[in-house]
Amino acid sequence: MKICRVEISPGKIEYGVVIEGEVYALQADAESSRPGTKLGKLESLKLKSPVSPCKIVAVGLNYRDHAEELKQKIPEEPLLFLKPKTAVIDPGEPIIIPPQSKRVDYEAELAVVIYRPAKNVKPESANEYILGYTCFNDVTARDLQAKDGQWTRAKGFDTFAPIGPWIETELDPMNLEIEARLNGKVVQKSNTKNLIFPPAQLVSFISSVMTLEPGDVIATGTPAGIGQIKNGDEIVVYIQGIGELKNPVKAEREI
After folding, report:
1. Chain centroid to CA 145
2. Fold exhibited by the domain 51-254
3. Which among 37, 90, 94, 217 has most CB atoms closer than 10 A?
């Protein structure tokens, strides 16, 4: 099931289910979720970010090829950092290059969306706490990341967390092609089988540190091939079985 959020009229946002180009209202109860009345054609509705997280827990150096690219040792435990919910933007909404940075990069990632409160979850039980998976772009001010020595400012600017286009609830996350396409050119290409710490292990590890709440997002890390985005670019994150997350890029001075 593809769960989305759509704006059906100005200021009115509803959860929906995408089926063959049509969007149906999401009907949910304690036991199941299912499509209800038709809201309209997907192409005629504005897609919002499929989730509005309380927090985004992101993971650094979680692909072997990316660690090798940066000449870093494979981490013994997941490297965690947080992105604020104010960084979240919708599919199609512009990523804004802030004036403080001379180098802003894309990072294509698989994101995990949490289904119910999770604390001290065992890896073998992690799937019970996962609603599904979506595309994520961990936009990063690379120069500020190097300058600061920690990642809060570099990762936390408004618009630095595009999410979408929807949450796929029926997906095996461990053998999915993942790509970033910059202006139509493939610039990142890998497979989630190259993850160092898979989603179930991440849910377990993170929930031993902090309680994960419904709607929280875990960004699982990016493969090799990170690079710069500039004013006028379009960046696409593609994940097999989910779809494409597209965002234009603008400089703040152009807004």
Report:
1. 20
2. Fumarylacetoacetate hydrolase; domain 2 (3.90.850)
3. 217
Domain 1-48 listed as CATH 2.30.30: yes
Domain coordinates of the chain in residue numbers?
1-48, 51-254
User: Closest Cα partner for 60 from 50, 73, 43?
Assistant: 73
Alpha carbons 27 and 159: distance in angstroms, whole number: 30
Q: CA torsion sign, 185 to 89 to 49 to 191?
A: positive
Contacts of 37 (CB under 8 A, 6+ apart): 24, 25
113, amino acid identity: V
| E strand segments, 12-160 | 12-19, 22-28, 33-41, 46-48, 56-60, 79-83, 88-89, 95-97, 104-106, 108-114, 130-137, 140-141
Report whether pLDDT(11) > 70. yes
CB atoms within 10 A of CB 228: 15
Please report the pLDDT score of residue 29 as a whole number: 65
Q: What is the pTM of this model?
A: 0.95
Question: How far is residue 139's CA from residue 159's CA, in Å, rounded to a whole number?
Answer: 8
Mean pLDDT along residues 171-181: 97
What integer pLDDT is reported at residue 255 of this predicted model?
A: 53
Q: Report which DSSP code applies to 232.
A: T
Query: How far, in Å, CA of 157 to CA of 143, rounded?
Result: 13
Contact 212, 113 (CB under 8 A): no
pLDDT tens string 52-96: 999 999 999 999 888 778 777 888 999 999 999 999 999 999 999
Mean pLDDT score of the chain? 94
